[in-house]
Structures are given as C-alpha cells and as structure tokens.
DNA sequence: TTTAAAATCGAAAACGTTTTCGAAAAGACC
DNA sequence: GGTCTTTTCGAAAACGTTTTCGATTTTAAA
C-alpha cells in the first residue's frame, strides 16, 4: 500500500502540507519555483489524492446513484450505457442498484445511496411503487433526484421521459390507417404510469377514429421477465376473440410471446393478425416476422438524465435556484414485417 | 440538509461524542441506561452516520468496482445481475465502468477506481488488452482484483471462468456425433483468451475424431456489437466453401447473423447447414430455428466473482494470507432446432 | 471502613485533505 | 533608511467519525 500523501511530499521538500496542497491545486499564492518542485516531486512519488479525505472535506463525492427495476431488459441496458458514458464524460462515477421491481427494495436502496453521500440519484420506478414519500424525502434532504422512463407525475423533480400516451396513440392510429379494424391491446399491470399511459393512448386512438373501445379486448401482461405472458394471452385471446386482426402489445417482449404462439399455432402474422410491439429491442429484428415497434431512445434518455442531474447538483452547490425540467424525448414508429401484408 | 451528527446527539443528551459513538456501535463499556437513551435520541433525531467520515477513519469504503467491456450483451447483463445481488447481500455497493473493449479506457478506469479507494475490483478484460501491468500494479497496491470470463492466464489473482476450450470441444464433438462432417468455425479476434480457447477446442475436437483441420474453414468475426459479421461471413463462406454442413460460431450473436443470412438466402438450417452458438442468450430462443448453444452461467459467475473478491478483501483486512482461487463453472449444451434434422 | 476490582465515561489523537487568515519576506517607492 | 505594497508561505481549524487510554465512579470483597 504505502500511498504517498501530502505530508510525504511536504517533508521530502522541507515545506508545509498547505503549500503542497495549494501548489497542486494551482493556487496563485505559491511561487512558480516551488510549484514546479512540488509537481515534480508529486510525480516521482506517484502521489494520488485520497478521494475519501477530499470527499469529507469538500462534502461532495462526485458519484451518482442509479436505481433501475432491472438490467436484463435491453431497454435499460441502453439507458445504462447512456448514463455511464455521460457520467464519465462529466467526471462522475455511478453506483448501480437494482430494485427488481420491488417497492421495499427501492426504498431501502435510495436510503443507502443517501447514506453513502452520493451527489444525486437517477431512478426509474418499480412497478409496485405508488407511494413517493421516499423520493420527496430525498429531495428535501438536498439530494437531487431525477426520474426517467418510469416516473411519477406527482413528484416535483426533473424527469426525462417519452410520451407514452402519444406513442401508443400513434401506434394504434398507424394500425387503423393500415386498415386493421379489431385491435386488441395487451397491457401491463395497473400501477406503472407507462402502462396506464399506453393503455390510454390505445383507447383514445380507437375513439378518435370512430372505433368503439371494448374492454374485452384488453389483456393484462404483468410479468416483465419472460414472454410467457404474451404467449399465454395470445392463446387465450384466439379462443375468446378469434376475429381480432391486430394486437398492440405494451412491450416487445410480450409481442415476441404473441408471435411465438402464432408461429406455433399456424396463425399467420400479419395476414391474420398483425402485431405491434414497443421499445425496439434488439430482439425485434431477430424474430420472424420482424416486429413493427416504437423506438424508445434509451441511450439518449440516459444521457439527458445524467445531464439534468449534474446540472442540478451544480445549481445546488453554487446556491443557484434549482429549476426542474421535464424532457420529453421523441419516439418513432419502426415499421417491419409484423404489420405489413 | 441539516444532517444530525454525533455531536448533535451528544449535546442534546449532555454527554460526549465518544459515548454516543460507542453506544451506537455496541461497545460494552457503556451502561445499558445511556445506551438506550442514545439509541432513542438517535432515532428521534433521525441520525444517519456520514459514510465518508467513516470511510476515512476505517480506511474501507464497502464499495467494489466493476469493469466490463460492454453491458449491452445479454451475457454481461446477467453477470451484472449476479454481481449486484451478491454484493448487496454482503453489504457492498458497486460502481460500474464500461471499457467499451478499449485497453486505454480500461487502464484509466482501473486507476480511477483505485483512486476512489474501492475495496476491490472485478474485471473482465477488453478485447484489446494484452498488457497486464495495470492489473498487477493494482494488486501490488493491495487492491484485490478478481477476473471473470475474459481473463488473463498470466495474472496472478483469483478468477472465475468457464472452460472455453472444453465447451467448444464438446460442442464440436456433439456436431461430429450428429454426423456432420465438414464443420466450419466463425471465431473471434486473435487477442482474447476466450476466442483463442474456443478455437483450440474446435481444432482439437476435429483432430480427436479424425477430421483434418482446415484453416480455410475458419472465419474471423471481430465485431462484438452486431450480427452483421456473422451475416457477411455466412454469405462469404457459402460461395467459398458451399459444401460445409455445419458452423460452430463463437457467439450467439454471430450465429444469429448466420441464421439470418441462411433464412434470407433460402439455405435450410439445419438440413443443409447446422448452426451452433455460444452463450445461450435470450435471443437464441427467439430466432427461428431456435439455436443450439452452450449455456454460460453468467448470473452464477457474477455471484462467485463477488464472493471470491469479498473473501479476499476480508483476508487482507484481517491480515490473513491471501490465496488465489480459480473457479471453473460448468457449461452444458442446450440442444435446440438449429442442429437437429 | 478500607481496598481492590469492575463499570462507566470522556479527552484527545487520528484518518488526509482544503481553506482561511495572519505572518514573514521581498520588492517598490520616496 | 523608512514606509507601503506585493509575494510567498504556514499554522490551525475544519470535515465527522473511531478508538485508545486514562480518569472517575460504583460495586464487591475483606
């Protein structure tokens, strides 16, 4: 170990630690001559400042925390990528925690991050989360939080999102314009805002185009880790409502499950039933037929979230007033085989 | 902010910070009575210890660093999962860095982690890395390192790996036993140990079964982020060596590229050419035909790596002699459609 | 009651920096 | 040479803990 510290440089040079510290940090009240000597000595002694001591003194850790529901999803992987890249660029390290879609875990992890004195935290809510006091508490304690993707509208903080309702609206409108008439929706569970908004988009698109909304055509897929849900509900809907001609799925994963079932059951996609996904996972180009879907800019989302967070950290540090922003990233339809006859 | 500190509790109770600290940490030289008073006051004042101060004093951060080449790959996502879960269970936080397969970045990031005083680091080498002094340097400075998956044999530290050569040998042997005679190999680039070992396994399996190794049947796929490489080389091999009847691919991603090309070109899999992947990515069950592959236990690998690392951290802390272990995780063949006629 | 042992507490040093403030030295000016 | 300004440096406090060691008080033993 034997790390060299300021005092080692100081005694090697016969000067004080104060002078060494100032020389290294570029203070102007140190002569060019001694500054040069200090820098050289620091170099040869291979000095590396002890970040922990610096953190204690300066009261900042140059570290941000990230809480995401899961990493296995391709979408969150790309968000993570964006986060890591931007954080590194701005000189921050990132601590990652995974809530596994559990509210209790999410709460505990947020407390952990605050205890670790991270300068700010980025989070995407778990599916269970419908109480936001832990987040408000964090903000109240001056740890800035920015929410991304799975957010809560009622929390007053910066956010970066897509317009789920609009994206869903666009998707369903696209299907209607393509001539599909009886469009089902495989939705997510009832708590997450995404799930609600995509459902609303679906419903509004139908109504806006004179198609009556039928709650019997809405199936719930609340398992996020597997495509079984899509598979099973596809099976179910084809016995209960065999005359549908399209399904708008909340997620590519669900859509993949649907297509898998259709392929096995000999149901032609899109000839008999078209399938529309959501997120543009890598997988969606792999399956046959290739999946039409909504592109959700994960990488960009990670970038923006970090940017917003660090800006806010700076504002707090400089005692500037903080203003919360909501960035809405554009989505677009990626048309592939699963919807074009 | 207004965090409550030890001194706040102390002055509220009219006692010293020493006593407060000891009471909270369960020292036996504090009376039951005052301990109770302290604990209660700490509770009501919502005391949270300042980790940075604790870190400085105790000289440990309860944080480990992880450097991986990329997160987008499904395999690394599951390793990450295993890491996060085990680290949380053992009370450690994890800082993640991504080298993007660049040696220089990997080196810089390792230095960063050491400067941040992480208690240890987990890493999987970049494809470019063929100099290991940065790792040896870290170990010399008493920051334990454990390597996983993409390792360097010449570095003296704990490792958790699969036996790439054996897994590849098994895969090719499987193909031979299935009756395939002219088996090509799409290998990775020349530096990474994985790539080398899988190639060696391929070669040895051929030789062990009396099939002459032909270097013309080996194609290099060194792009890890896309399946284009597999796609293009598949196209190439079918003009240069149209009589092959199987391909052993270094990665599921490459295999997917091959199958995509075959599907488009009307080449039947596995009837004309069988395809064998490696890693058992989620994707491999999505493509049609479903891909036969080697299951690589990523989650378990993450678990074990963290376990090894924390054990070593403890050994160093307690001044016990450290012993380096190499854990070899079992792989197995997952037979699916792409190799069974 | 005296003495020894046990129980309970606190002063102070330490971890390695950063930064304020004052002191000393050097230079400028008359 | 004396005064004033500028340059250059260092002592010391501070960040919030942990832990050693000694001091004081209480209890037990005789």
TrEMBL record, chains A, B:
Pfam families: LacI (PF00356), Peripla_BP_1 (PF00532). It comes from the Bacteria. Keywords: DNA-binding, Transcription, Transcription regulation. InterPro entries: HTH_LacI, Lambda_DNA-bd_dom_sf, Peripla_BP/Lac1_sug-bd_dom, Peripla_BP_I. SUPFAM superfamilies: lambda repressor-like DNA-binding domains (SSF47413), Periplasmic binding protein-like I (SSF53822). Residues 4-58 form the HTH lacI-type domain. PROSITE patterns: HTH_LACI_2. One of its GO terms (molecular function) is transcription cis-regulatory region binding. The keyword Oxidoreductase does not apply. This is LacI family transcriptional regulator. It comes from Flavobacterium pectinovorum.
